[in-house]
Amino acid sequence: MPCWSYFFLFISFVLSLLSPSAFAEVQRFRLDPKESQIATKTKDPFGNLVNGMFRLRQGEAWGDIDRLAETASVSLVIDANSYNSNIGLRDQDVQEYYLEVKQYPVIRLDSTGIQKSERPHSLKEPWQITLKGRLELHGVQREVIVPVRLLYQTNKIIAQGSFRLFLEEFNITVPRLLFLKSGNQVEVDFSIVGERQP
């Protein structure tokens, strides 16, 4: 191979190292339990809507904003014993008899990939992401697909979205009152805030 060919190969290699993507970095964010919210909606045996809340225990998110589809990842842990619907006896029943928190004290979500990501037109708009993950609830793991609106700021991320799950898929007995049965479907709404770490 002529010398000039080696020269051009070398120049191409150097230019690839100097491209913007070469300087991109995977950033790490610690998820903030105090600022994050996880809300649930389901129906009681009388058809009334029951609003509940869970508390995020801990979590982290990673990603390179220039290669979000390839690098984005999230892992979070929810305190199952934190369920709160503002009715003490009902909350105790949910924790003890349905979630069985002594045996299954946490709920985990770990991402396994990004199915889709749409870059916003401006920094003030959120990314539209379809997250694929593994949800562990009541000792059962299931794959979930979660649409997420991700607002990226310099030192902060805010991820919002909602998805549905079915209690019986996680071997959770659907609450019953005499012959009346509660709803099997649970709507989960979340707002997760992460602070960038050095």
Brief summary of the model shown:
With 198 residues, the protein is α+β, with helices and mostly antiparallel strands.
Structure description:
The protein is an alpha+beta fold and 198 residues long. It has one domain: Lipocalin. 17% of the residues lie in helices and 53% in strands. It has 4 helices and 11 strands. The strands form 2 sheets. Strands 1, 2, 3, 4, 5, 6, 7, 8 and 11 form a 9-stranded antiparallel sheet that branches. A hairpin with an 8-residue loop joins strand 5 and strand 6. The longest helix has 15 residues. About 10% of the residues have low confidence.
Specify the overall morphology: elongated
Strand content: over 45%
Q: Residue ranges: pLDDT <50 for 5 or more in a row?
A: 4-23
Largest sheet geometry: 9 strands, antiparallel
Number of separate structural domains = 1
The total of beta strands comes to: 11
CATH class assignment = Mainly Beta
User: What sequence of helices (H) and strands (E) makes up the elements?
Assistant: HHEEEHEHEEEEEEE
Content-based structural category = alpha+beta
> What name is given to the CATH topology?
Lipocalin
Rg, alpha carbons = 22 Å
Q: How many DSSP helices?
A: 4
Q: What is the average of the pLDDT values?
A: 87
What is the fourth-level CATH superfamily? Answer: Lipid/polyisoprenoid-binding, YceI-like
CATH architectural name: Beta Barrel
